[in-house]
Amino acid sequence: MLTAELLASATAIADNIVSLRRAIHAEPELGLHTPKTRDKVRAALAHLPLEWRSGPSTTGEVAVLQGTRPTGGAGRRVLLRGDMDALPMPEQTGLEFASTIEGRMHACGHDAHTAMLAGAAEVLCARRDELAGEVMFMFQPGEEGYHGARFMLEDGLLGGTPDYPLPDAAFALHVMSNAPFGMIGGRAGALLAAADQFDITVTGRGGHASMPHDTRDPVPAACAIVTALQAMVTRRFNAADAVVVTVTRMDAGTAHNVIADQASLRGTIRTLSPDHRAKVRELMREVANGIAAAHGVTAEVGITEGFPVTICDGRAVALGREVTRDILGEDAWKDLPAPIMGAEDFAYVLEKLPGAMFFLGVAPSGENWSQCCGLHSSRMMVDEGALPLGTAVLAGCATRFLEQGFT
Ligand SMILES: [Zn+2]
Ligand SMILES: [Zn+2]
Known about the structure:
The protein has 407 residues and is of the alpha/beta class. It is built from ten helices and 16 strands. The two termini are 18 Å apart. One zinc ion (ZN) is lined by residues 108, 110, 143, 174.
């Protein structure tokens, strides 16, 4: 079976995958413009029969591989995605290929994602005559809060015109540094949350700290809003459809003896359904305004929209499960029992077309994975032995989808 051979093909190019990953890891780039990373990918894949699509808003590129096996009609098209950007944080791994740029680190494993995707391109190009249809490899910058996937969609790099519609399915992998080596996990429905930010400004009237009755102190009102928001989450939302509201920052005042005019709160909102996403905004305003009124001050709630909910198509998850079991064995697949309240901008792609993201466990083989540092840690590590496994699963999902579509 084709999928069984993919692991051998991916393992045969493991050195290429690892060296691309290390080159990207050593020179992390941030945001929507990752030209050096893009150039490394282009150089690594220059010998392959790929057509490249690039577009004005980002350094993201889509490499297109046309299979040469007769399709017997309209061939299917499938997209595989890897992200390329790093985080603005120091690295403390002590690796010989650690970041050479102060204050930047590939701590979310996007270097590994890009390298696995490039590996999948290499594996599938070598099997071009077995592919009936088209594979798009999406190399995307700007995942860490920059909406890179949305820009690439808006630039038309994934298609979306009558002549060149969007692909029929999309798959992506995200490494998980504190999950068992070689495990692939996924779930149908909500996988990751929508993430919005809020800023609440409470305005009163400042004055002397010894005579609060002559002022309208915004601080007690702000504190009451923080606790009321937690009660709002537990009392106004169905606990089976999780909502998280976390106040991460409070600011007010300048001195021990001065009551401030204003206090501000900011934080994050995580939701798993569009209904709750809208309802949180409405209720936060209701709560903040009501509490402010009770304290004789006013409140203003600002919301900055982040990524939507990442929703995986059940058929795509079933396909990934089958492919994983064929390639890595029965025990490699794990059905995730619940969504994770993190967020991911692959959600924009999955809003437009059916597909799925899976997690790949990359904790060092043989170590206690639960003790390993998680994503976004300055000590986050990837066991590179897992990279060919991820490459094979990506290539397998594309191959299986072109062969069978969703069954
Ligand atoms: Zn991240
Ligand atoms: Zn990430």
